[in-house]
Amino acid sequence: MSEKETGSDQARPHNARAALDALAEAAKPTFWGHLGCELDHAEPGKAVVSLNVRPEHLNLARIVHGGVLASLLDNAMGLVVILECPGEKTVTTQLNVHYLQSTGIGTIRCEALLIHKSRRTLTMQGRIVDNSGELLAWGSGTFRRVT
């Protein structure tokens, strides 16, 4: 997770910036890092994550594999959950993906938003766009606190 932007650096408390930096470092050896996700922006209830599509992200039709898009949605929504529930263990309990258009090599971006939070669950929505802003996929997810 490399951090490109986390809102206004002047407005963000130093300890929040340090927490994002620590999270970025911890994510490098995980699936997040293997996939190639990069944090573009984070604020309460929202995160934007980008992915530079590489050949290994493509299927035999030379378009981004649906599993990559699903993983990008899950990672971006999961990041918002992590920021909403610091220090708590959470898991994805449901992920729904609607594939709308295909794309190949280039940069894609996922915006994830918190739409509901209860005592035990968080409900998210996300959308993935290509470089020109075309909607490639959208989805929703439910995450559960387990600690």
Automatic annotation (TrEMBL):
State the source organism's domain of life. Answer: Bacteria
Q: Which residues form the Thioesterase domain?
A: 63-136
Entry-linked Pfam families: 4HBT (PF03061)
Please name the SUPFAM superfamilies in this protein's record.
Answer: Thioesterase/thiol ester dehydrase-isomerase
User: Which of UniProt's keywords are assigned here?
Assistant: Hydrolase
Indicate yes or no for the key word Hydrolase: yes
Recorded hits in PANTHER family, A to Z, give: ACYL-COENZYME A THIOESTERASE PAAI
Name-wise, this protein is PaaI family thioesterase
Q: Which organism is it from?
A: Paenibacillus lignilyticus
